[in-house]
Amino acid sequence: xxxxxxxxxxxxxxxxxxxxxKAWAVMQSGAxxxxxxxxxxxxxxxxxxxxxxxxxxxADALELVFPMTHDxxxxxxxWARAADKIVPVLQAGRDVAFLVEGDASxxxxxxxxxxxxxxxxxxxxxxxxxxxxxxxxAAASTAFPLAETDDTVAIVPAGYGLDELDxxxxxxxxxxxxKVKPLMDGIIDWLEAxxxxxDAVFVEKAGAPEERIVRDVALLKGEKVNYLSLMLVRNPNxxxxxxxxxxxxxxx
Amino acid sequence: xxxxxxxxxxxxxxxxxxxxxKAWAVMQSGAxxxxxxxxxxxxxxxxxxxxxxxxxxxADALELVFPMTHDxxxxxxxWARAADKIVPVLQAGRDVAFLVEGDASxxxxxxxxxxxxxxxxxxxxxxxxxxxxxxxxAAASTAFPLAETDDTVAIVPAGYGLDELDxxxxxxxxxxxxKVKPLMDGIIDWLEAxxxxxDAVFVEKAGAPEERIVRDVALLKGEKVNYLSLMLVRNPNxxxxxxxxxxxxxxx
Lengths: 252, 252
What we know:
2 copies of one chain form a homodimer. By secondary structure, chain A is an alpha/beta fold. In chain A, 28% of the residues lie in helices and 20% in strands. Chains A and B meet through helix 1, strand 5, helix 5, strand 6 and helix 6 of A and helix 1, strand 5, helix 5, strand 6 and helix 6 of B.
């Protein structure tokens, strides 16, 4: 018998309109839906995006618990448990659609899950459907060009600190600062000292219905922002080196 | 009368399945399709993606010529001409769907076009629909995790040279090297010298039907690759600093 495929079904950052046609087709293909939660019975962002399309969660959809922790042993146990749950379904020939917020290759746990599944049964195929990352949705909402011709872009969890940002700034036209929450005040001071306040925009829950945009980021000083917050920063002062260019063949 | 909206309709990197549901709806909304070409009557990548869905190009679809040049005066004239063509349509109340390959905020000329349009008529609204960037599709095709928890990612046109890559490498878990064509041999030597050949993958025309993946990138030495080529490089040796973490509220 043909085994089922494990399909990373990227749903984009929150807007049901940003689900790709391919992910949308998989959702309706009869594949078993799986969705991640932080604890048993908890809310799932990914499932929420799927439901916002207007189609109901299939009765047999499967919740997979991945605790919010950086403890690698706890995580390993969670991935192993999740793999144990879905491998029999795959071996019985049914596809499994693992619903992923954003893009499955970007800050997602899908890679780990796939590894555990293929460790149990190497014959199980894995397909990854790419999705729209949250910061691309944030850029679209704010008409913020992430990259123009020959621009450089860094995607950096803000938690590495302001010294790291200072090290990177000269090299990049755009900084995408992820998870800015714990460092908001420091980042605002950092931007101010470098005259970059005007080149920054703050986006909370990019692409989701509750998306919040703050262009005057200094207003956020002292405010506790949501965990799902990022900042886009343009650096108008990057000194560009010479660019070695390829030649595009005409009309190809 | 209500003016039409200029809609950046991101179509993703090439696979018609990676068009978002929102872009798909705009394509069928009666909005005027516009698509970029390099020269009059030339081939349009963006239009090709739209046509791969199986729907025909509307008879009134409008070609906009943006020459392949870095001459800013030539480009400015092209944007001005394009804006002149579509502003009357918008002013007459019809939406205009500018078809964009990949994501409209990432290495796209949409920002410029929108600026020229709003310079002519500041009342015209602009909407940007985010799309899947080519490197996310490349990551999905190759099961290459662009970013795991707390990872850092740099998106860099390879043309800035190998010294620049050396400067960035210690800071990043993943390098996304764009437009690798003119520097292929140098990059291969660079990867080899740093023991990174095994952590790199080459993708030509990511997400398009002609997508080509080369995992043993050393095989490409001396080969002339396509202009639309990128390389994904994992850096397993990044020394991580301490990460300052936010606390995610439970179940939000």
